[in-house]
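Morning run. Coffee first, then this:
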Amino acid sequence: MKRFTALLTVLAALAACNEPGASPERITAATTATASSSLPHINRTNIPIPVSLNATFTAEQCSNNPGPRITLEGVAAVGGFGVEMTFTNNLKGTHTYTADNVVDVSFQNSGGPIVIPKQPSRGGTGGNPFIWVQFVDAKGNPTSDEIFLGRCVQGTRYGFNRGQGTSGAGFAQFEITSCENSPGPFIDVTAGLTMDGLGLRIIFRNNDNPVGGPHEASVSDVLTVIPPGLNLTFPKQPSQGGVGGNPWIFAGFTDASGTPVGSATLLGRCEQISKSLS
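And here it is:
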């Protein structure tokens, strides 16, 4: 898949106010942006992405050198991703605005599955080791405590369910028309999400004391849950503003529940944006 290139924006903080019908949580913060391309867009890095892992570990060759061999397979379910657009005909001064209408566009629902390719890990400790797992980021840095699974010969299959998280970079691009017509404006949104990656370190020890102990041998291997740079692209989706006139348009990313992730960005005024695209 093609990876999106992040477009730099210059941001200045704006405080926000609300009126009846507009949720204050949804418009508590906004930023103005100067676009570096002719199309209005928003970008954000370090978007938190919750991950729910449902995996199976199969243990083999528990008594053989250089075993054991652990095979991981399963599904990682990732959190939702969307865009929220706020329309206002009243941009008061330079520090406040009033929301006339808020429209959510959902690109990915919560629980979207990512299949984990079947992959083996060879321990190399020999004997009958104890097994731990630990989440790591794309660089191999631990992001969780070690989680004890059991001893190799205690069973050939281990079920594993755990919530964890990674981060990613989001991109959305907007095409805007019909600014003066009610119930316009009409907006098409294209978006993408590139994930930083998530892995599992499989740890084998011939001693059940992870701090250390007599004759301890420890070997680990990292298996991929979400590959770094995994890119999800979402086809163009329409959105209708429903404000009429020539509104100012703000946009920002949301999680699965529609809660904003970070601040919104001021794309500009509808008529000026549509003229620049014509």
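Confidence is low (pLDDT under 50) at residues 1-37. Good start to the day.
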